[in-house]
Amino acid sequence: MEIVHLLQAGVTKPHLDRAAGATWLAMVYDSARALHGVVTTSVEEPTVGRNHYRVGVRLRDAKPLSILFSAAVFLVAAAEQQDPHMIQSVFVDVPGGDMYRRAGLRVATRVELDQPLHERHCIF
């Protein structure tokens, strides 16, 4: 399923899901360990202005990344860490993406997330 097909009413609102968030976070730790990395920040829950969970990781010899999770559509993404007030993210492929998939989560690629949204993608 293409990422744009996940657009649905309410997807942009902050959505907390304790069970899904716990599954995602467990996979963040598992994938970081498997890739010889570490989790570097505490989890930030969805809030006004941000509809996803976020946690920082650093993989061995790699830039710091943020691993993102939208509980509304069970979607995992990764982005370069940047100033938290910046609006536009620089997406990257999710390190250890197969681990998240085995846990039943969807994994977005950099290419999918870098596609522009058009009016035809939005359901009114």
N-end to C-end Cα span: 20 Å
Strand fraction band? 15-25%
Shape: globular
Instruction: Label the structural class.
Output: alpha+beta
Unreliable runs: none
Order of helices and strands: HEEEEEHEH
Number of strands: 6
Q: Report on the biggest sheet.
A: 6 strands, mixed
- Approximate helicity band: 10-25%
User: Could you tell me the mean pLDDT?
Assistant: 84
Oligomer: single chain
Please state the CA-atom Rg, rounded to the nearest Å. Answer: 14 Å
DSSP summary: helix tally: 3
List key phrases describing it.
single chain, 124 residues, alpha+beta, 6 strands
Write a structural description:
It contains three helices and six strands. With 124 residues, it is of the alpha+beta class. Strand 3 and strand 4 form a beta hairpin. 23% of the residues are buried. The mean pLDDT is 84.
